Amino acid sequence: MMTRPLARVGIPGVPSRQGITCPYCFASVPPQRVLFRCRGQSGRRQGCAPVLDKELAEYTGSTAGASLPPVFSASGRKGRADCPECGLPTGNRACPECHNPLPSAYCDSPGRIVALVGAKNAGKSTYIAVLLHELMNRVGTELDASLVACDDRTIERYKRDFARPLLEERRLLPTTTSAATGPREPLVYLLTRTRRGRFSRARNESLALVLFDTAGEDLRSREVTDLHLRYLEAADAVIFLVDPLELPGARAGVRDAVPGPRVAGEDPDSEPLNVIARVTETLRQRHGTRPGEPLPVPVAVSLTKIDVLRPGLLEQSALHRSRSGQGVLDLDDRDAVNEQVRALLHEWQAGQLDTYLGQQYADHALFGLSALGALPERGRVGAGGVRPYRAEDPLLWLLYRFGMLDGVRPGGG
Ligand SMILES: Nc1nc2c(ncn2[C@@H]2O[C@H](COP(=O)(O)OP(=O)(O)OP(=O)(O)O)[C@@H](O)[C@H]2O)c(=O)[nH]1
Ligand SMILES: [Mg+2]
Ligand SMILES: [Zn+2]
Ligand SMILES: [Zn+2]
Questions:
Q1: Which residues contact 160 (CB under 8 A, 6 or more apart)?
Q2: Are 91 and 134 part of one and the same domain?
């Protein structure tokens, strides 16, 4: 376990990082350099007329949607400024490099960029859809936390690309397209928890959560990884997803009804160990660590689709139990699941994965989850609907690591 002191988040005056990292271009921006954007004309309001924003057009690769009221610089400390042209006050902020909107909640709260990586078909997009839904509903309630999108584009993208197809129409999600075809857009949320101390007053703590869905295809070759996955270098944490069906040794533990791996044939570039090695190299470039030195970024490694495993394999195991603990991280449960997944990996001749992670990262933890809860049928979610199982575990552990969730040992010790 890591002993590096963690900055407490949400406490005024204790910033957890220097400046703001733009979730679009990853420039590190001192707060006073954040630009403002005029709110423009609307109804009877006489704001500035839209003009072509060259920086934004360059970022998106198209002039469509890049005609907006102008940006201007002003002291960004108060979160509002008057437009020098039309005199109207605005609270809309923008990145000085790429001119994408920086939601004010994002500027005001410590941000954490979480990258989701894994080979093609590992279950990343499905996981994002389900995890966010869980956080907005059941898990959010349990944690006394709200999860709110920081900008309209996040709301649109989540609905269009994740929630509507998978959760409403119950269709499996399409393969994520390569970042080579257009910029990879983040999902930016503000997670706010109310914490009640036994004697102190309740207080709110916020964390801006930036999630990236990666195309597994982009992690196959080093060139694409370098060019299009710059966000990996900015990641504060990594969730690495592993499909047990891609581990040859695991086939014996899989239910008979499960079809063979869809990614047919041997593709060494897509093997979990090779994918994580590529991501690790990218992270090393930013951190400038020497080869033998462990990386400080926490890594949650999770088996996905554990509904495919034979029921006998999980019986009486930690993974079979549902998670205990309400609004806290149960550290006993955490240790038990970690040990069980480690044992499974070794049993499946994938112990290398665990060994490699131990060598490369100061802090890694193993998980097992199912986003769908059951086998899909003919391109659709199974008849019982989406029934996630332990899907929130990796995120709870990261929140614990970020200092936003307490860890307890119900058994004492
Ligand atoms: N049994 C089971 N299958 C799942 C689960 N989650 C995903 N799958 C299957 O895995 C397939 C791929 O899931 P995606 O979420 O699209 O995978 P991805 O990692 O985003 O893939 P790329 O976008 O190509 O990188 C789905 O179409 C489902 O068939 C799960 O929880 N249980
Ligand atoms: Mg995908
Ligand atoms: Zn930017
Ligand atoms: Zn104006």
A1: none
A2: no
Q: How many domains does the chain have?
A: 2
* Tokens matching residue 406: 């307490």
From ligand 2's centre to the CA of 125, what distance in Å?
4
Strand order in the sheet with 93-94: 71-73, 35-37, 93-94
Q: Distance, CA 241 to ligand 1 centroid (Å)?
A: 10
CATH number for the domain that contains residue 169: 3.40.50.300
Find out whether the beta carbon of 244 lies less than 6 Å from any atom of ligand 1: no
**Tokens linked to 284:** 């090393």
Given 102, 120, 141, the domain boundary residue is 102
Per residue in 91-137, pLDDT (tens digit) is 999 999 999 988 887 888 878 888 889 988 999 999 999 999 999 99
Q: What is the pTM of this model?
A: 0.88
Ligand 1 contacts CB of residue 126 (under 6 A)? yes
Q: Tell me, what's the pLDDT at 171?
A: 97
How far apart CA 119 and CA 320 sit, in angstroms, is: 25
CA dihedral over 321, 323, 325, 329, signed as positive or negative: positive
Place of tokens 């614990």: 400
Measure the CA–CA gap between 6 and 15, rounded to whole angstroms: 11
